[in-house]
Design goal:
The structure holds two protein chains of two kinds. By secondary structure, chain A is mostly beta strands. Chain A is built from no helices and ten strands. Chain A is globular. In chain A, the strands form two sheets. In chain A, strands 2, 4, 5, 8, 9 and 10 form a six-stranded mixed beta sheet that branches. In chain A, strands 1-3-7-6 form a four-stranded antiparallel beta sheet, with no helix packed on it. Chain A starts with a strand and ends with a strand. The mean pLDDT of chain A is 92. Helix content of chain B is 0%, strand content 59%. Chain B has strands spanning 5-7, 10-14, 19-24, 31-37, 43-50, 55-58, 61-66, 71-76, 85-93, 96-99, 103-108. In chain B, 34% of the residues are buried.
């Protein structure tokens, strides 16, 4: 079956513009996560969706960041008024059941803010 | 704050040698997982060890967990050039998986 997919794979934008990043999780996975990874760094947790529960937004770095998950499947991460420090690889993962089960990662979206 | 911290930060070995990577953490966990990342893209799950387990094997991988010392190690035996990648430990606790900063492993042919 298909794995986690993300689009676009690369996005170059100008400072101040809004961007939307998309994640298609594995079918049937109830949990979905967004992470950010800066060059040579570990993964920074951003947000976590589990079923119909309210998302855990504790990792979002500012109110310019938001995410939605429609119909318990596809998720969109939106960054408004992008800044250069937003440049990073944004990774999406999904898992079956509990948050600390094995996570399946997408290939990521490399965002460059000029 | 980071839960898992890997050690060393970088490791360079010759093909055929064993690679040992360590991870330490601070709080109680449900499980500990190791992931591999190639080329700065998506991570691939390698192995999960639960808090009530002490050792687990998968192919050339051996993971140990010492909850009293809050530490884990990942051993890759008979390394290959294709094992060159970044390796991350991740601790599962409080409905969340927290990743360390990773270890860069280089296997020289």
């Amino acid at each position: 079956g298909a794995g986690v997919s993300q689009s676009p794979s690369n996005k170059v934008t100008e400072k101040g513009k809004d961007v939307e990043l998309r994640c298609d999780p594995i079918s049937g996975h109830t949990a979905l996560y967004w992470y950010r990874q800066s060059l040579g760094q570990g993964l920074e947790f951003l947000i976590y969706f589990q079923g119909n529960s309210a998302p855990d937004k504790s990792g979002l770095p500012s109110d310019r960041f938001s995410a939605e998950r429609t119909g318990g499947s596809v998720s969109t991460l939106t960054i408004q008024r992008t800044q250069q420090e937003d440049s990073a690889v944004y990774l999406c993962a999904s898992s079956l059941g509990l948050a600390f089960n094995e996570q399946f990662f997408g290939p990521g979206t490399r965002l460059t803010v000029l | 704050s980071q839960q898992g911290e890997e050690d060393p930060q970088a490791l360079s070995i010759q093909e055929g040698e064993n690679a040992t990577m360590n991870c330490s953490y601070k709080t109680s966990i449900n499980n500990l997982q190791w992931y591999r990342q190639n080329s700065g893209r998506g991570l691939v799950h390698l192995i999960l060890i639960r808090s009530n387990e002490r050792e687990k094997h998968s192919g050339r991988l051996r993971v140990t967990l010492d909850t009293s010392k809050k530490s884990s190690s990942l051993l890759i035996t008979a390394s290959r050039a294709a094992d060159t990648a970044s390796y991350f430990c991740a601790t599962g606790a409080n409905s969340k998986l927290t990743f360390g900063k990773g270890i860069t492993l280089s296997v020289r042919p």
